[in-house]
Amino acid sequence: MSNIQLFISCTLIWGSTWIAITYQLGEVDPALSVAYRFTIASLVLGAYCWFKKLPLKMPTHIHLKMAAVGLCLYTLDYSFLYQSQKYIISAVLALMSSSIIYLNIIMRKIFLKKPIRPEVLIGATFGLLGMALIFLPEFDKVQNDEFLAFGILLACISFFFAALGNVVSERILDQGTPVIQMNFWAMTYGLVFLYGFAFFSGAEFILPKSTDYYVSLLFLAVFGSVLAFGAFMKLMQQIGSDKAAYVVLMYPLVALFLSTLFEGYQWQLQAVIGVLIVLFGNAIAMGKIGLLRFKIKSSAN
Question: Which of 50, 182, 202, 205 is deepest in the core (most CB within 10 A)?
């Protein structure tokens, strides 16, 4: 698949998972919901590797890095994200998610010694401005209380580990590790941490009765984890974690369009302008605006 196809796949799938995640909250402890999700995803990937006879043997140092990805990206990121959604509205989460791009840029520079690309930084800033315009009316619904602050803290921790997991993943992929096998091992290691955390935190191991829970679980596991993460890792391998992270600013737009169809979301002029600004920022970040890119390079020289 081309980069644009990979980018669109991640955007469309993850844009629809925001709705699916809401059916996971309530009856089952969030850590267990995440564990169930990645259990199914790991089994699917393992079966695919077995059927295709893909080699699963990796060097020890790669296994250690994949375990770190499992801990950061598939355990801590999602566990804290699920918890934060109990206390803050999705508009706040969508706006805060833009911080992943900035964190990726910084960590990529520190840990991978890769240069900061000005077009990504500028594009991310436009994206943040666009997101603020889109969700500005929703902030009237925010209740300023102690639970809001706690929810924001949980979200910040989630995004930090997401960015760290992205950077470690890029390091693994740079060393030639195949995407499918890396995801299989990382998700499998993540399960050890997820079930371990659920056990020691006293989470009640129950199976919910709601059909909606299982339907959303299968969608999140197969599409949101196996397919979307596979596409995202491949995209990261080809264009870098800093550019690939712009997906986090695009999939909330998909969520908005789905909300328009199923929840009666009413578009306002500022939201339309916000969408255009986000798209403009994406074009800058991906180097699609040649003149601006030329100016940036010229000024850097």
Answer: 182
Owner of token pair 């960015």: 163
Inter-residue contact 205 to 45 (CB < 8 Å): no
- Structure pTM? 0.87
Q: Which two tokens stand for residue 194?
A: 């997820």
Element (H, E) at 17: helix 3-22
Q: Two tokens at 294? A: 């030329």
Q: Which two tokens stand for residue 266?
A: 């009413």
Q: Which residue has tokens 């995209």?
A: 235
Residue pair 181/81 in contact (Cβ under 8 Å)? The answer is no
* CA atoms of 74 and 77, how far apart (whole Å): 6
118 and 298 in contact (C-beta within 8 Å)? Answer: no
292 pLDDT above the threshold of 70: no
Whether 1 and 244 have beta carbons less than 8 Å apart is answered as no
Whether the CB-CB separation of 80 and 152 falls below 8 Å is answered with no
Predicted confidence at residue 291, as pLDDT, reads 41
Structure tokens at 278: 């986000």
**How far apart are alpha carbons 155 and 163 in whole angstroms?**
12
What digits encode the pLDDT tens for the residues 137-154?
Answer: 777 766 666 677 888 899
Residue (of 45, 59, 87, 121) closest to 300 by Cα position: 121
Residue boundaries of the structural domains of the chain: 3-300
pLDDT at 246: 92
Mark 114-147 as b/e (b = at least 16 C-beta within 10 Å): beebbbbbbbbbbbbbbbbbbbeebeeeeeeeee
Q: What is the distance between the alpha carbons of residues 254 and 216, in angstroms, rounded to a whole number?
A: 17
Arithmetic mean of pLDDT over the chain: 88
Which tens digit of pLDDT belongs to each residue from 85-96?
778 776 677 778
157 touches 94 (CB < 8 A):
no
CB 233 within 8 A of CB 173: yes
